[in-house]
Amino acid sequence: FHAELAPADAVELAQQQQQQNGGELRYEHETATGAEAIAQAGAVAVLAAEENRGKVPFFAGIDDCRFKRIVEPGDVLTLICEFTRVRGPIAKGEGRALVGDELAAQAFLTVFVGE
């Protein structure tokens, strides 16, 4: 889905897409840089869980961020986020940014979900 969506629409589409892709969220973004876009997609991915509906995600950290390719103006990033560990309000997972089939950036995310 695309970044122009209203937040409620984005969350609903994220939930549908996670169900279709076995829990993996794919998000296309045309403007943000790799690390920023991965963090934004991670926040949306956390909100796609039914138990987090109506809550507020807070980006808590990024680790082991690696940039593999320069992202040029006009490139379309495909973002893939998958949370592998969720304990209470803290979720940890991995995000990847691709341009076409080429890896542009990857990082491990930590997101806190607040009321």
Structural class: alpha+beta
Could you report the average pLDDT, rounded to the nearest whole number?
A: 76
Distance between the termini: 25 Å
User: Low-confidence runs (pLDDT<50, min 5 residues)?
Assistant: 1-9
Report what the structure shows:
This protein is of the alpha+beta class and about 120 residues long. It contains two helices and five strands, in the order αβαββββ. A five-stranded antiparallel beta sheet has the order 1-3-4-5-2. A hairpin with a 2-residue loop joins β4 (about 90-100) and β5 (about 100-115). The longest helix has 14 residues, at about 5-20. It is globular. The model is unreliable at about 1-10 (pLDDT under 50).
Summarize the SSE layout with pairings.
Elements: H1 7-20, E1 25-29, H2 34-47, E2 56-67, E3 77-87, E4 90-99, E5 102-114
List keywords for this structure.
115 residues, alpha+beta, 24% helix, disordered N terminus
